[in-house]
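Q: I have 179 residues here and want to know how they pack in 3D. Can you give me a structure?
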Amino acid sequence: MKLGKILGVGILATGLIFSGCLDEEVETSAAAVQITGEKFPQFSTLNLNNETVTNNIFAQKKITVINIWGTFCPPCIDEMPELGEWAEDMPDDAQIIGIVCDAKGVDDYESIEAAKEILREANANFVNILPNAEINQYLQKVDAVPTTIFVDAQGNLIGEPVIGADVDSYKARVAAYLK
């Protein structure tokens, strides 16, 4: 049974590495500021500091940028310094949170410590959460990392995701939404 779980995790990680971790920017639609009607799932999970975070975090701002990333992904890691800088300079009615997609819960000390070290080195001091069952169900729709999605204050997904590291595109989406 343990061998099956280990193989399953290995296959998943390999699939994400080869199909998901992109070195190049992927072109996305410039007009993606409409609300899609789909909601981000209700959740109650922990951040990397072992504090509870729920989907109520969305109500704190008009728009939340959710960066889905992995500790195994060079483009994810490479964009962290720019995301950290942007998090400090964001408009008052916007925020960014990260989802560490390869963390397998609060007992996955290796992934959690790797994520903390990446964020520390990048000076990226925004909230990063661990996926729980509800978030993992949503992550099944994610084919590549980094993938960045946008959520309004009610938890509605806004526009299409941005696949690949493209902070300028994230900024443009937030600016267009806040107009």
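Q: Anything worth noting?
A: Residues 1-34 have pLDDT under 50 and may be disordered. Residues 44 and 54 are 4 Å apart (CA to CA).
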